[in-house]
Design brief:
Elements: H1 6-18, H2 21-44, H3 49-54, H4 61-95, H5 107-121, H6 126-150, H7 156-180, H8 182-192, H9 202-220, H10 222-227, H11 232-237, H12 242-264, H13 270-281, H14 286-312, H15 324-339, H16 355-362, H17 366-382, E1 383-386, E2 389-392, H18 395-430, H19 442-456, H20 462-484, H21 491-515, H22 520-528, H23 536-552, H24 557-563, H25 567-572, H26 577-599, H27 605-615, H28 621-646, H29 654-671
Antiparallel strand pairs: 1-2
Helix pairs in contact: 2-14, 4-9, 4-12, 4-13, 4-14, 5-6, 5-7, 5-8, 5-12, 6-7, 6-12, 7-8, 7-21, 7-29, 8-21, 9-12, 13-14, 15-21, 17-18, 17-28, 18-23, 18-24, 18-26, 18-27, 18-28, 19-20, 19-21, 19-22, 19-26, 20-26, 21-22, 23-26, 27-28, 28-29
Length: 680
């Protein structure tokens, strides 16, 4: 018979062995301290340490740098890491979601976007209300996330999926603003990458005051927070005001994030790593995590910053500025992917939204889309804006301008066709109605391939750029399909992985732009994908690829139909599943690579066009594919024309315009309520 009294005594030693909190946090602090001592010794260069600490000599640059730059940077790093560790702990506890943190909830991108808008239109507000602006932007972003997740009953996966969509959309808007106001926002973009450089103690004192207030508020609600582990029902039975406690905890988390953003910019994924890793190290109770997560966050960010400083002085990186926040994002994306299997509940994305009925009434017949494509092409060629407003070109003027406008039209049309066809193929073969080159990160993977090619190849030509882009897109697709074969990864989890890849790409872009590398301007031309820079040869080549893709599509129609039913059924129908899946992925990768070179990695055309085509009557694979190509071409040509008008005399890239216009459609898809009906 089992002796119950022996259980506690036998489990206690093993629990003590598994408690590695002190080892984990102490090891990080020791690493950071050793690197900091090295940097302090290098900065002082023989000057008196005690004099620099107590009363630095104003004539000694070494003592001034140590006292007013190096020490404030360490203090700011510790405060930011502790604040983000506490913010992540609070959000994960009250939402009972292991992936909840300021980045995945959209708070960081929302706060940064609000600061960017204030910098452009109300710069006077930044001098006195920077924290309030960041708090407002972060709060609004999180409210949008919760509104999107409400129809999914606030399931953990629904919250994170909504958060990643908001992150992607806010990041795209920020990139659009940066492109249209590059001179005004260049300094803000460098700072927004999470640069911890300091020029005094004012910022640290200000952040310390905010963190102290938030820490005291957290201490007041520490007991109700403990009860959240037992569930909302148990907490209510014990008399805990669940709604008020959750609201207050989230408000504290948003405030902590706003303080950090207003001080140093965006530092992602520290709030994700700190509470998760200290819990795995032995901090099981909430009161323990409230102490150890901020300590671990401070140690992690300090060690990361010291490592960044060590690497930045190397000969390879000495000419570039490496923001610490970008490095934490690079490290956090793999952690986010590794933690995805811990999410058990998921939203339902395979049912038709009520808004679909409205779209279906708008576009039922093919001739309507033929007419819309013709109108879009006519606008692109004949209507333009000048200093006096919109003008319609005469036949003589059109004949003169045709050599310039026709390649732009051809490249936009080809990109729309390629993205729409690729999106249709991906949605059909994965049976995922939200699969697209944008949301699954395939386009961002291709853009990363372009960035790597630009920095590896001395003089990259069109062939090298296409090869790098195609390789990046194919590797991303293969990685996604490898994850899809794991039983714990549902299609919705793949969306989170894809948006995480897109976030990683945005972090790399910000890092390169902040580095001061002269190739950053060339990289941005390919990343944003403005058709303004497309040569006639490239435009007509892309058109040829689009026509070829449409011609060979019937060869893959049977495979697309069978793979959409699942691998077992496809195999029973005689389809060679591994070979068919690989061929279809290579096909989609080539299309995405060509389109990414033209309009960048983000446009949402690959997501929107297949849905509109299906709602217009394209149910079978080929019918949906060809109708989707028509829809995608019409949308992209319209986006290209709008981009030439809204910021005249400059040009907004067509891919960014399409993303801004397509974002509401993505929100409609995420807001739809599950029904008892069939598939969409």
């Amino acid at each position: 018979m089992h002796n119950p009294t022996s259980n506690p005594s036998s489990s206690q030693p093993s629990d003590m062995v598994r408690d590695r909190r002190l080892t984990l946090v102490g090891g990080l602090f020791a690493l950071a301290m050793m690197l900091a001592i090295y940097h302090i010794h290098d900065a002082l260069d023989g000057a008196s340490l005690w004099s620099a600490l107590a009363l630095p000599n104003p004539l000694d640059v070494r003592e001034i740098v140590f006292h007013d730059s190096l020490l404030p940077r360490i203090a700011m790093t510790l405060l930011c890491g502790g604040a983000l560790g506490l913010a992540g702990t609070l959000t994960q506890q009250v939402l009972r979601n292991p992936l909840a943190e300021p980045m995945t909830l959209g708070v960081f991108p929302g706060a940064y976007l609000a600061l960017m808008c204030a910098e452009l239109w109300v710069p006077a507000w930044l001098s006195s209300g920077r924290e309030l602006i960041a708090l407002t932007g972060g709060s609004l972003a999180m409210l949008v996330v919760f509104a999107l997740a409400w129809s999914q009953r606030m399931s953990p996966l629904g919250v994170i999926l909504s958060g990643t969509i908001v992150c992607l959309y806010c990041g795209t808007i920020s990139l659009a603003l940066a492109m249209s106001h590059f001179d005004l926002l260049q300094g803000l973009m460098i700072w927004g990458g999470g640069s911890l450089d300091q020029t005094g103690w004012h910022g640290s004192r200000h952040l310390l005051a905010g963190c102290t207030a938030c820490g005291f508020a957290t201490w007041l609600i520490r007991r109700p927070l403990d009860v959240f582990d037992a569930g909302d029902a148990t907490a209510r039975n014990l008399g805990i005001p669940v709604g008020f406690t959750r609201f207050l905890a989230l408000l504290i988390a948003v405030a902590l994030t706003a303080f950090v953003v207003s001080a140093v910019g965006v530092i992602g994924f520290v709030g994700l790593a700190a509470p998760t890793l200290v819990k795995l190290a032995g901090a099981r109770r909430m009161r323990d995590r409230l102490l150890w997560a901020p300590l671990f966050g401070a140690a992690l960010l300090w060690a990361t910053d010291e490592l960044v400083r060590t690497v930045s002085v190397a000969d390879v990186f000495s000419a570039y500025l490496i923001p610490t926040g970008t490095v934490t994002s690079l490290l956090g994306v793999p952690l986010l992917i590794a933690l995805l299997p811990r999410l058990h509940s998921r939203p339902r994305l395979d049912h038709a939204p009520p808004a679909a009925l409205v779209l279906a009434r708008i576009s039922k017949r093919v001739p309507w889309w033929l007419a819309s494509l013709g109108v879009a092409c006519l606008l692109s060629l004949a209507v333009s804006r000048d200093a006096d407003g919109l003008r319609i070109a005469t036949l003589a003027q059109l004949d003169t301008l045709l050599f310039w406008r026709l390649p732009h039209l051809a490249s936009a049309l080809a990109a729309g066709v390629l993205l729409a066809v690729a999106g249709t193929v991906m949605q059909r073969t994965t049976a995922n109605p939200m699969a697209s080159p944008d949301l699954l990160g395939v386009g961002s993977g291709g853009a990363l391939g372009i960035v790597i090619t630009l920095f590896v190849v001395a003089q990259p030509g069109p062939g090298a750029l296409f090869a790098g882009c195609a390789a990046g897109a194919l590797v991303t697709l293969l990685a996604l399909m490898a994850l899809a074969q794991r039983a714990s990864f549902a299609p919705e989890r793949l969306l989170i992985v894809g948006v995480a890849i897109s976030s990683l790409f945005q972090a790399v872009v910000c890092a390169v732009m902040a580095s001061g590398d002269p190739r950053a301007g060339l990289m941005m031309n390919f990343v944003v994908g403005s058709t303004y820079y497309v040569t006639p040869a490239a435009a007509w080549t892309a058109m040829g690829v689009a026509v070829f893709a449409l011609c060979i599509a019937p060869l893959a129609a049977r495979w697309m139909l069978a793979l959409g039913l699942g691998a077992p059924i496809a195999a029973s129908l005689g389809v060679p599943v591994p070979r068919a899946r690989f061929v279809v992925l290579v096909y989609a990768s080539a299309l995405v690579a060509t389109a990414t070179l033209l309009v960048g990695p983000l446009s949402f055309i690959g997501l929107i066009a297949p849905h509109i085509a299906r709602l217009s009557g394209g149910r079978r694979p080929l019918a949906q594919l060809y109708l989707s190509a028509m829809v995608g071409a019409s949308l992209m040509v319209s986006a290209e024309w709008i981009g030439r008008q809204i910021v005249f005399p400059q040009e907004m890239p067509a891919g960014l315009v399409a993303t801004l216009l397509g974002g509401p459609f993505v929100i409609v898809l995420a807001l739809r309520r599950p029904t008892a009906g069939g598939h969409a």
